[in-house]
Amino acid sequence: MNKALDIGETLKLGWETFTKNAVPLIVGLLLVALVGGLSIGICIGPMVVGYNKMCLRSARGETVAVGDVFQGFQQFVPALILFLVMGVAITIGFVLLVIPGLILAFMFFWAPWIMAEEPELGAIDCIKASVELFRRDVGASIIFVLVNIVVNAAGGVVPFGSLITGPIANAMAAHGIDRVRGTAPATPSPAY
Question: Contact 53/15 with Cβ under 8 angstroms?
Fold first, then answer.
C-alpha cells in the first residue's frame, strides 16, 4: 500500500485532530448539513469546501473557529459547479449499472479537497487533479476511501454518532490529501 495513504496513520492523526478541535469540527459539520439542507442543496458545495478548508487547517495544527466553515463561499460559483458536475456524472454512472457511478465517486473523492487547497482552480481542473491522484495508486486509493466511508458511516449505529465519526473521517481525509499530494508536514523520526 502507498505509504502516503497509510490507513492507520491517517486514522490516528484524524482522531488526534478531532480531539484537539472537537467543538468547531462538530458545529461546523452541523452547519454544513443545516445550510446545505435549508438551501435545497445549492449551498452544499461551498459549505463542504469551507469545511474541508477548516479540516485542513486543523490537521496542520492551526487554530480553527466555527465561522471558518463559511470560507467556501469565497468560491461559491466554482464549488457549486464542482458539486453539480460531480453529482450529474456520478448519477449517470449509477444509472449505467451502478459500477460506473462507484468508480466516478472514488475518482472524484479528492476534488472538493483540492478546491479547498487551491481556490484558483476551477471545478473541472479539481476533478482532473482528483482523478490523477486516484490513478497514482488505485488500490491504496480505493482502500482509503472505503475505510473513510466506514469510519464516517459507523456513527449511524448510535443516535448522533455521526457528529463524532463525521469530523474524524474528514480529519482523516485532510491528513490523507496532505500525504497523497506530498504536502504533509514532516513527522519526526522515532528516537532509538
Answer: no
User: Which amino acid appears at position 21 of this protein?
Assistant: N
Question: Alpha-carbon distance 171 to 177, whole Å?
Answer: 10
Task: Please choose, from the candidates 100, 80, 78, 82, the residue with its C-alpha nearest in 3D space to the C-alpha of residue 91.
Answer: 100
CB-count exposure of residue 82 (10 Å: 0-12, 13-18, 19+) = buried
Q: Rg (Cα) of the chain, in Å, rounded?
A: 16
Q: Could you tell me if 53 and 34 are in contact, meaning their C-beta atoms sit under 8 angstroms apart?
A: no
Residues in the chain: 192
Reading phi first (left if > 0) and then psi (alpha if -120 to 50, else beta), residue 40 is in: left
DSSP string, 54-104: HHHHHHTT----GGGGGGGGGGHHHHHHHHHHHHHHHHHHHHTTSHHHHHH
Q: Give the helix ranges, DSSP H, for 108-189.
A: 111-117, 123-136, 138-154, 162-180
Indicate the domain borders of the chain: 3-22+77-180
Q: Is residue 33 within 8 Å of 66, Cβ to Cβ?
A: no
Q: What is the pLDDT of residues 88-114, one digit of tens each?
A: 999 999 998 889 999 999 999 999 999
pLDDT in tens, 34-84: 999 999 999 999 999 999 999 999 999 999 999 999 999 999 999 999 999
